[in-house]
Structure formats: C-alpha cells, structure tokens
Amino acid sequence: MKIAIIVGTRPEIIKMSPPIIRECESRGLDYFVLHTGQHYSYNLDKIFFNELQLPQPRYNLDVGSGSHAEQTGKMMVGIEKTLLQEHPDIVLVQGGIRIQFLLVQLSQQNCILVLGMLRLD
Q1: For the chain, what percent of residues have pLDDT higher than 70?
Q2: Which residues pair with 118 in a beta bridge?
C-alpha cells in the first residue's frame, strides 16, 4: 500500500509531522510527501522539515502566490500528474476546503481514497 501525504503550508507541515513520523516511518510504510509550495520560502520550509526530522518532499509544485483560481489550478494539474505517476492507494491531507475539494475531484476520477483532517477557518 502506497500513501501520498500532501502539505502546502508551514502549519500543515507541523500538523502532519506526527502521522508521518509515528505512523509511516515507524511502521516502514511506503509513502511520499508532496508539497504544493503555497508558502514558497524554500529555506524556511527546509528548516521546518529538518527540525521536525521529516524527509524532504519527493515533489514540490512551487505554486507560490497568486489568486485563489491560479493556486487551485496549479495545484490540480501538479497533484493529478503526481497521483497518476505514483498511483497511491491513499492520500492523506490536512488543509482547508480548497485542497480537500480538489482532492475529492481527483480521487473520484482515479479511484483513490482521500483521508482529510479538515480545518474550519
């Protein structure tokens, strides 16, 4: 079973570190991290990954700043390409309505289970 873990912002990196370390790393699960790059300071993100002892993301979409539509469009294209290349069985995401809506659309098209931890803000 392969797991895709998607993060996009520094708070999501922090919130997703326990599932990555406790569950994936300690159990030896096949997983990869995809970073959408919504917070686009590579150096600051690298500090978070290093301090939390997380592996660097296998993929970084470098979405950066832009309008809601621009970010969503870039994420949809990049995430879909990655999911089609990697064929994960499960996608684990912590984020807002935008990323979860996007993943539900992609997962239905590609028969992938999405597990989300919804943030209501």
Answers
A1: 82
A2: 95
Please indicate, yes or no, whether the overall pTM of this predicted structure exceeds 0.85.
no
DSSP string, 23-60: IIIHHT-EEEEEE--SS--HHHHHHHHHHTTPPPPSEE
Structural domains of the chain ordered from first start: 2-118 (3.40.50.2000)
Cα(101)–Cα(50) distance, integer angstroms: 30
pLDDT tens-digit series, residues 5-48: 988 888 888 888 887 877 888 888 999 999 988 776 777 888 88
Helices 42-51 and 10-18 cross at an angle (nearest 10°) of 20
Rg of the chain in Å (alpha carbons):
13
Under 8 Å between Cβ of 120 and 95: no
